[in-house]
Amino acid sequence: MPFSQTDMDLRPLFDACPIAMIVIDSAGRIVSAAGGLLQLLDWTPGKLVGRSFEQALTVGNPVHSSSQGPRHSSRHRRRIRSGTGRIVEVEDEITRLPVAGRSYWEVHILRRAANAGTPQPPSLLDGDSSIGGSSTETMRTRHVRMLLDYLPAGVALFNESGSFISGNQAAQHMLGRPDENTNSLIPNPARSGPLAGSAVLQASLRQCFQSRTPVVEKAVKWSKRGELRHLDWRLQPVGPSDAERPAAVLALIVDVTDRVRGEQSLRETVIAAETVSHRKTMFLSAVSHDLRTPVNTINLQLDVLRLLVEKRGETDKDLIPTLNVLDKAVNGLTEMLDDLLDISRIDSGRLDDRPSIFAFDSWFEATLAPHEATASLKNIDFTWRVDRPGQQIHCDRIKLSRVLVNLVHNAVKFTQSGSIDVAASLKDEANLILRVKDTGPGIPADQLDLIFDEFAQLNNPSRDPSHGSGLGLAICRRLLESVGGLISVESRVGSGSTFHVRYPLQKIQPLQMIEEQRAVAAITPSQSNSSSRSRLGRTPLLIIDGDGICRQSLAAFLNSSGYAAAAVADAPSALRWLDQTRPWLILLDLGLPGKSGLALLRTIRERNEYRKVPIIVLTTGDVSGECDDFMALNVEGVVPKPVNLGQLVQSLARLSPRS
Asked: 106-110, 207-211, 248-252, 645-649 — which is least confidently predicted?
């Protein structure tokens, strides 16, 4: 085959070549350059063709040179000017190729300079005595062959039937071909054959011939002597532009098996890590959920014991300090369980956004009141203010409450003296701006970015449990991220900290306002209901709880507090009790054995005589998904376990027929 046929279109090959390669004629002009120059020296190959190598690229004389053979090859360490003007020190391997008479062309292979003493690969033409011959055409063919065989990428020609025409050494190695005649670009029918039966490559080959446009296929599976490999293919049609069809297709082949295996290994590692994380989340959720029942029991028994001690007066006053210690420990454990449940809900993606419209002032005051009382016991000045009182806002009240409670709780916990100031701004209708400022110990500047990490605790290497779980600020950050909000902090050691929160608000539509007011009216006890309850006299309230100790402790506490309380363990017992007696209020645990608490709630509401009886739901889990059901079933409130008996008594007092 004439060389002009074989060398129809090698420009795509040189453009795709990953090696920084330059071919210089006998006059020192650049006649060709490979695409690797762009990565190494920021030079587009086309901008160098026709220019003098010495004038365009080199700076000064070679720093170091060594000979690999007096006739064919040498190396130089030289400084090269990049396309952006910077100076790069490179290793320049020069191979001289005789072209006619005593004239030579030079092939320069450039690499970033290695450290002194680093072994270098052998020269391109070391020991090659085959250069010669009188035919210039044959000489040029051999030169191109040697350049292609030096490439790490495979280069091959295929005909329209998918038969292998010729290829360099890398291509034959990748395709698993015999090694004989690997230096030849001349077609060898003895090595021809189908394109390995690959349907993908055969279809791409047909497309390339028919459309005369390049086709790229990524990570094509290829069986090489029984071993599965992955090859990237770039198919380029070659031949005269005026021909009816391409003469052949030039394929640039890159073995990406290691990359594909690495990506697969990475995917498997990610899946394994996600599985471990999911199991951790489920474990935390299950443990924290299961621990709430015994903690609730301890809390109830503690309150019963405190009530008995108060009744006996001076006799058991020495027990009060012990009760205070136990109370503090139970409260700390309850806080940790709440944090673990929150973080597990966030990790599992079960924290949906449930916006509602509510009056900001009353919510703000009610949320801060317990913390104001705690601060007062520590003689800390606690202040709060709203710049635009009397406003209603539309957002997820539960998430907003959690953020504010965590920030204020931390401020009260770590501030030993001075003041705490909580400010809210509603000037921007699209955002609620909160600021919590304290005079606590402050946070070192190098640890400000760490405080929002999970389980992060400053100055607590021994994990003193009095410092909390280290999840509060992490929960704030992740809750705010879930709604598109932001949290930041300013602090100086010894001067306190200031936390800033931006919480996005949704726009309130007039129709939403009307519906929200109807919903509030539906779950708020009316004056007529209170009057009707007042006529019931001393009617018992009913506790429906599947946990025996919790049920008995709660009944004992309420009976000691002046309420007549009856208790049953499951849905059948509750329905039998309700057939005989009509309570003025029902405390219903959702975690009942057999029939669920929610199903029992629906059954109770189906009875006409119980449609207006107040029902308070007790739960150890997340019930955010049942909010609509509770509203439709006219639930008065939801009390999480461990039960805060003080808040429960306040709710009962509000709903009691004696009020």
From this structure: 645-649
Give the pair of three-digit tokens for residue 589: 């645990």
What is the SS3 assignment for 141? Answer: helix
Look at 376 and 284; give whichever has higher pLDDT: 376
CB count in 10 Å sphere of residue 193: 14
Q: To which residue do tokens 């992060």 refer? A: 456
Q: Omega of the bond prior to 642 within 30 degrees of 0, cis? A: yes
Which is more confidently placed, 466 or 386?
386
| Bridge partners of residue 97, in order along the sequence | 105
Beta strands in 342-418 (DSSP E): 356-359, 381-386, 392-395
Strand partners, 438: 420
Give the span between the Cα atoms of 384 and 423, in whole angstroms: 6
- Give the integer Cα–Cα distance in Å for 194 and 197: 6
CA neighbor of 348 nearest in space, from 414, 282, 392: 282
Distance between CA atoms of residues 224 and 234, nearest Å: 19
Q: How many alpha carbons lie under 13 Å from residue 154 in its C-beta half-sphere?
A: 25
Q: What's the pLDDT tens digit per position in 258-278?
A: 999 999 999 898 888 878 777
Which helix (H) or strand (E) segment holds residue 492: the answer is strand 486-492
pLDDT of residue 8: 41
**Amino acid occupying residue 158:** F
| More confident position, 380 or 330 | 380
CA 347, CA 274: separation in Å to the nearest integer? Answer: 11
Nearest to 465 by CA among 328, 559, 359: 328
**Least confident span in 298-302, 458-462, 603-607:** 458-462
Phi-psi region of 194 (alpha: psi -120 to 50; beta: other; left: phi over 0): beta
Which of 4-8, 193-197, 438-442 has the weakest average pLDDT? 4-8
Tokens of 9: 């279109």
The pair of three-digit structure tokens given for residue 631, joined into one six-digit string = 């509203």
How many Cβ atoms are within 10 Å of 654's Cβ, its own excluded? Answer: 13
Closest CA relative to residue 615, chosen from 642, 578, 579, 645: 578
Let me know the angle formed at the C-alpha of 178 by 173 and 184, rounded to the nearest 5 degrees. 80
H/E stretch holding 638: strand 637-640
φ/ψ of 638, rounded to 5, equals -120, 125
Positive or negative: CA dihedral 127, 130, 134, 135: negative
User: Which residue type sits at 86?
Assistant: R
CA-to-CA dists, residue 509 to 356, 397, 427, 428, angstroms: 12, 17, 18, 17
**78 Cβ neighbours under 8 A, 6+ residues apart:** 58, 59, 60, 61, 62, 63, 89, 90, 92
Taking the C-alpha atoms of residue 381 and residue 421, their distance in angstroms, rounded to an integer, is: 8
Whether 432 has a pLDDT exceeding 90, the answer reads: yes
Tokens 């449940």 locate to: 341
| Model confidence at 189: pLDDT above 50 | no
Q: Report helix, strand or coil for 490.
A: strand
Q: HEC string of 27-42?
A: CCEEEEECCHHHHHHC
